[in-house]
């Protein structure tokens, strides 16, 4: 999975509180919420919720199908934090032998690998390669066609 754009987060993002009326929304609703809940004054600022360290955060749009089974699809926007220390299980943005990639960091037989979600792609053993971790993916923004 390769990147198409790299956008740095604003170090001082402006506040943008948007209406956030329901404290909990279930995927399978058994009823409808009260219309009065639409106006209870709660807000949500995605900068505050998702961007924990603005000076260490960047956004990236991805292409490819290697991470689809893990919920990262072609065209998705990733929020990446450079200040997080990578651990096995994290999804990483890494520069491997000069190519930027999005993969899950895993230990296999005590050796570090970058692995795709798609089984058609072999794990990449990084111990013997030139690998530079750019950051850990904190969030995936997936837009549905309308």
Automatic annotation (TrEMBL):
UniProt cross-references to InterPro entries, sorted A to Z:
LexA-like, LexA/Signal_pep-like_sf, LexA_repressor, Peptidase_S24_LexA, Peptidase_S24_S26A/B/C
Task: Please spell out the taxonomic lineage of the organism that makes this protein.
Answer: Bacteria, Pseudomonadati, Pseudomonadota, Gammaproteobacteria, Oceanospirillales
Ranges where the Peptidase S24/S26A/S26B/S26C domain occurs = 31-137
Keyword terms, alphabetized:
Autocatalytic cleavage, DNA damage, DNA repair, Hydrolase, Nucleotidyltransferase, SOS response, Transferase
Name listed for the protein in its UniProt record: Translesion error-prone DNA polymerase V autoproteolytic subunit
Please indicate which superkingdom the organism of origin belongs to: Bacteria
Q: What is its EC number?
A: 2.7.7.7
Q: Which SUPFAM superfamilies match?
A: LexA/Signal peptidase (SSF51306)
One MF term in GO for this entry? hydrolase activity
Query: Where, by residue number, does the polypeptide cross the bilayer?
Result: none
Q: Write out the similarity annotation.
A: Belongs to the peptidase S24 family.
Q: Which GO terms describe its biological process?
A: DNA repair; regulation of DNA-templated transcription; SOS response
The primary gene name is umuD
